[in-house]
Amino acid sequence: MTAYLADVAALARKDLKLELRARDTLPAMLLFVLSTLVVFHFALPADAGEDAAYGLLWVALVFTALLGLARAWVAEREAGALDGLVLAPSDRSAIWLGKSLATLAFLVAAELVALPAFVVFFAPLDASALVGVVLASIGICAVGSLVSAMAAAARGREVLLPLLFLPLAIPLVVGGVGASISPDPGTYLVFLGLYDAVFAILSWAAFEYVVTE
Amino acid sequence: MGEALLIRAAGLEKRFGSRSVFRPLSFDVSARGALVVTGPNGSGKTTLLRMLVGLAAPTRGTLDVALDRGRIGYVGHEPILYRELTALENLDLFGRLYRVPERRERIGMLLERFGLWEARAERVGTYSRGMTQRLALCRALLHEPDLLVLDEPHSALDDDGATLLDAELVSLAGSSALVVATHEPARLEALATQRLVLERA
To answer: φ, ψ for residue B165 (rounded to 5)?
Structure first.
C-alpha cells in the first residue's frame, strides 16, 4: 500500500512539475473560466434570477474541466511515455489516480478564481454549494481521467472526449446545481458522494483495460 | 539439460483489421539467448517487439514470456521519456516506478557511462536525437532487466554511441536475454544466438 501511494504521489508530482514548466493547461483553464463568466454576466438578462446563474456556473466549470482533461494525457502521448508507465511493475491504476489528483489540483486552482468571480458577478455561494463543487470536482476528475485516457488513444480524440465525458458529467451538473439551489441540498450532496464513490471504483478497476490492448 | 526458455511463441499472428502484419511466427528465446530480428520496413518488427513486452496482443497463436513485466527493458521507436523533464528527473521517475534499489547511484553510473552526465540537468526536449536515444537506453537498463527488447537501437546514434551500445550489449549477452530488431544485423553478428527474418505478409 505504501509503495502504491508513493507511485501515485510520484506520478501526480510529475504532472504538476510538467505543468509548472510547460504552463499550457492551467493558464488556459483560468482564462477560459473567467472569460466565460464575464460573457455570461453580460448575456444573462437582469431579471433571470439566481437559479439560472447557478446553472451557468456549472456550465463554466464543466467546460473548464473539459479543457484540462483534453490536455491531461498530452505529455504521455508525446514520445511514448505512457508505454513506459504501462510497462512499469507498479499497479496501473496508480497512473489513473496520479492523473486524477493532478487534474483535480488544476481544476481546484481554476475554481479558486472562478468562485470569487461568480460571487462578484452573480450571487453568493453557501456552504452546501461549495461542498457540491468539491464533490463534483472529484467526480469530474475521476471519470474524466479515465475517458480522456480512452480518447487519447483514439484518432478523433478532440471529438471523442466531449462525446464520452459530457454525458457522464450530466449527473454531476444535476447534483451540483441541486446542492446550490435546492431547499434540501443534503440529498444532492449524498447523490454526488455516491457518484464519486461508484465512478472512482469503476474507473480505478477499468483503467488497466483502457491502457492495454 | 537445456537452458530455461524465456519466450515461447507458437503460430504468432497479428492482424490490423483484415491485414496480416506477418506470416505466423514460431520461435523460442532462452534466458541467455540473443534473438536478432531483421526484415524490411513494414514487415512487423516493431509490432512483434511490442507484443513481446506486452504492449500489443497477438491476434492468433500463443506467446508466453516467463517474466514479470518489471523485469523487461524496452526501447521502442519512441524514447518513452518526458520532454519537459530533465534526464535526472526522467530516470528518477522510472527508477521509482521500477523499484530500483540505490536508484541515485545507478542513475549516476548509467548517465556517466552513456556520456550524459554533463547534460543531466537539461530538459530532454533540448536533447539531440542521439542524446535522447542514449537516455532511452539508460531508462531501459536502469532496473537491470532480465530481458532487453530493443527496436532499432542504433538509429540516431553517432559512431561513439553505437560503439558504446555494442559494448553494452556484449556485456549483457551472458546475463540477460536480448531481442533486437535491426537493419544492421552485422553489428550483432557476434552475439546473436538466433535470427528471425520477417517478411511482409
So the answer is: -65, -45
pLDDT over threshold 90, residue B112: yes
pLDDT digits (tens, 9 = 90+) for A108-120: 999 999 999 999 9
Residue A36, SS3 per DSSP: helix
Q: Is the pLDDT assigned to residue A213 strictly greater than 90?
A: no
B184: phi then psi, degrees, rounded to nearest 5: -125, 65
Nearest partner of B142 among B180, B88, B195, judged by Cα: B88
Contact assignment for A14 to B97 by CB distance below 8 Å? no
Domains of chain B: 31-57+68-197 (3.40.50.300)
| Residue of chain B nearest A92, judged by CA positions | B97
Give CA–CA dist B42/B53, Å, rounded. 19
Interstrand relation of B147-151 and B72-75 (parallel, antiparallel or unpaired)? parallel
Q: What is the pTM (predicted TM-score) of this model?
A: 0.93
Burial of A112 (0-12, 13-18, 19+ CB in 10 A): exposed
ipTM value = 0.92
Q: Which residues of B touch A10 (CB under 8 A)?
A: 93, 96-97
Contact B76 A75 (CB under 8 A): no
B123–A21 CB contact, under 8 Å? yes
CB contact under 8 A, B98 and A89: yes
- Strand (E) or helix (H) holding B154: none
pLDDT of B12 over the 80 cut: yes
B76, B98, B123 member nearest A88 (Cβ): B98
Spatial distance between the Cα atoms of A17 and A24, rounded to a whole number of angstroms: 12
Residues 17-56 of A with CB under 8 A from B: 17-18, 21-22
Give how far Cα A133 sits from Cα of A38, A67, A70, A137, B159, Å.
Answer: 20, 17, 20, 6, 58
Task: Give the closest residue to A83 by CA, choosing from A72, A95, A71.
Answer: A95
